Amino acid sequence: MTSHSRGAHMEAELTSQPDTWRQAATLAETAPLPQRGQRVVVLGCGTSWFMAQSYAVMREQAGHGLTDAFSASEAPLERDYDLAILLSRSGTTTEVMAAAKNLQGRVPLLGIVGDPDTPLPTLVDDVVVLDFADEASVVQTRFATTALTLLRAGLGMDVTPSIADAEAALAAPIDARLVTADQITFLGSGWAVGLAHEAALKNREASQSWTESYPAMEYRHGPISVAAPGRATWVLGAAPDGLADDVAGTGATYVEHADVDPLAELVTAQRVALERARARDLDPDHPRALSRSVILG
To answer: What's the rounded Cα separation, in Å, for the pair 265 and 189?
Structure first.
C-alpha cells in the first residue's frame, strides 16, 4: 500500500463535506427536528458526543430552549425532557442503544443515523437518515459534520457561509509545521469547544498523535505548560485576548483563523490528521484498536 493510498476512504469522505452539508441543509427543511421551546437532550459516544456538545451550546445561544449534551454512557436519564436525540453513525453503538431502550415510552426519541438498516431506527419515534454522509473509513469525518449542519440548519441558521469556508479549507495548503508537530492542543470557545475536542480526537485516532483539547479560556490555567518549540496550539474560532502572545512566548506554533467558520476549520484539522497519519505510515481507514462501532458483549 502506498502512502497516498492509505486513508483513501477518509480523504474521499472529508473532501465531500461541502456537498453533504448542502444536502443536510435541504433535508432540515422537512426533518422532524426539535421545536423552539422544547427541553432537549442529545446523546452520543465519541465524535457524536462532541457534535452534541456543539449543538447544545448553539441551540441555547440561539434562544431555542434548554439543551443538554451527554455521553450516552453517563447521561442522567431520569431528567425531564421533551425530546431526546440519539446520534449514531452506525446505529448499533451499545451505549446509545441502551439509552434508547431506557428512555422508550418516557421521552419522545429522535434518531440520527447513517445506516437505516440498523437497530436504532427501530427503537425511536422518528429518524433522520444521513445515508448520503455514511462512511467506509473507521475514522469519522463527514457524518459528524453533516449531522451538525443538519441541526444547525434546523435552528434557522444560514449554513451557506460555512460551506463556502469548507470549500476554501479543502483548497488551501496545509501548514507543514502541523504535520510534523510533536504535540497539538486544540482550543475553542462556545459551540467550538466541542469541535476542539473532535479535532483532537481525530488526530489521535488517525495518527496516534499526542493531542489535547480545552475551552480556550482554560488553556492558561495549566495546559499551556506543555507548549514548546515543535508543538502547536490551534484555536478554532476567535481566541481570547492575549493568547497569541502567551503562546508565542513558549515557542510553540500558534494557529488561529478567526474569520473562518469553526466547522470549516475542523475540516482543516481533519486534513492535518490524514497527512499526519500518512507521514507516520499509518492507515486512518483502519486505525489501531478501533472499529466502526463499539458493540459490547
So the answer is: 13
| Alpha carbon distances (Å) from 229 to 110, 177, 181, 245, 247 | 46, 11, 9, 14, 10
Kindly state the cell numbers that stand for 6. 492509505
5: left (phi over 0), alpha (psi -120 to 50) or beta: alpha
Q: What is the pLDDT of residues 229-276, one digit of tens each?
A: 999 999 999 999 999 999 999 999 999 999 999 999 999 999 999 999
How many other C-beta atoms can be found within 10 angstroms of the C-beta atom of residue 108? Answer: 17
Span 148-172, pLDDT tens digits: 999 999 999 999 999 999 999 999 9
Considering only CA atoms, which of 141, 140, 95, 133 is closest in space to residue 113? Answer: 133
Angle, helix 47-61 to helix 142-154, in steps of 10 degrees: 20
